[in-house]
TrEMBL record:
UniProt name for this protein: Ferredoxin
Database matches in InterPro entries: 4Fe4S_Fe-S-bd, 4Fe4S_Fe_S_CS, EFR1-like, Flavoprotein-like_sf, PSI_iron-sulfur_center
Superkingdom assignment: Bacteria
Keyword flag 4Fe-4S: yes
Function: Ferredoxins are iron-sulfur proteins that transfer electrons in a wide variety of metabolic reactions.
Length: 256
């Protein structure tokens, strides 16, 4: 049984899917009379945690692992001192390089890893209306799965498995910045459509978009391809691989 004390959930959400799941997890915990606080994962060099609380981490999968901003957050966590921690991740189809490596890092920091669960949700790169409809169905199924996962955390039946060699090798793929630069370079701004509103600049989690004399520019060395700019541009002025996406605005961009 999960001891009834406050739960702090740190989350990162590029386009809103993960935040929707976070809200669902919070709702289910609160129905069971747990107190839940949500906090955004940021690039801060320090992370504050109250002394007597459980920790939740909810993040998206990216390149079969997760974004550098998430790994930086985990690196900056304080020592665990046997604090309970659970993980949830969202993905379109497959991961492999997050659950095992995350458990390895957190265990080394002294956290008690009580459960991890992966949720298939809508893609952040919706190329067609059909993809968008499939995504809605995936999300509904994920919310039902979240109810069962939270219950398993509460009753102690949740698992956090680790496959050392395979998961560690998959984590290596996303460890360097080279792969992120390659994916970032597929993102372009269609300048004639851009109205210089600077929404993308304001909400980029790693400050990779800047306003210049030549318009909005993506700094590909910083970009992590989270697709927030692509999905929340009011003029849909971004292109991925030369294609315009069907935008997905699941939440208010200020919540991300």
């Amino acid at each position: 049984m999960l001891i009834r004390k406050p739960i702090i959930i740190y989350y990162f959400s590029g386009t809103g899917n993960t935040l929707l799941l976070v809200k669902k997890i919070k709702e289910v915990f609160e129905k069971q009379k747990y107190s839940v606080t949500l906090r955004k994962i940021s690039t801060s060099e320090t992370v504050e945690l109250e002394d007597d609380c459980h920790l939740g981490i909810v993040v998206p999968v990216a390149i079969e692992s997760t974004f550098p901003i998430v790994w930086d957050f985990v690196k900056n966590l304080p020592e665990g001192n046997n604090r309970s921690v659970f993980l949830a991740d969202t993905m379109e189809s497959f991961s492999g390089g997050i659950i095992g490596p995350m458990k390895k890092v957190l265990t080394a920091k002294g956290y008690q890893c009580i459960g991890a669960c992966e949720f298939k949700m809508a893609t952040s790169m919706q190329m067609t209306e059909k993809k968008a409809e499939i995504g809605k169905q995936k999300n509904e199924a994920a919310f039902l799965q979240a109810e069962k996962y939270v219950q398993s955390l509460i009753d102690g039946s949740a698992k956090w498995n680790r496959i050392p060699v395979l998961s560690d090798l998959m984590r290596l793929v996303s460890r360097g910045h080279f792969i992120w630069r390659i994916t970032s370079k597929t993102i372009r701004i269609d300048d004639p459509l851009c109205i210089r509103c600077r929404v993308c600049e304001k909400h980029c989690p790693v400050h990779a978009i800047q306003f210049t004399d030549e318009g909005m520019k993506i700094q590909h060395d910083q970009c992590i391809s989270c697709m927030r700019c692509v999905n929340y541009c009011p003029k849909n002025a971004f292109r991925v691989g030369g294609k315009q996406l069907v935008q997905k605005k699941n939440v208010n961009v200020n919540e991300l």
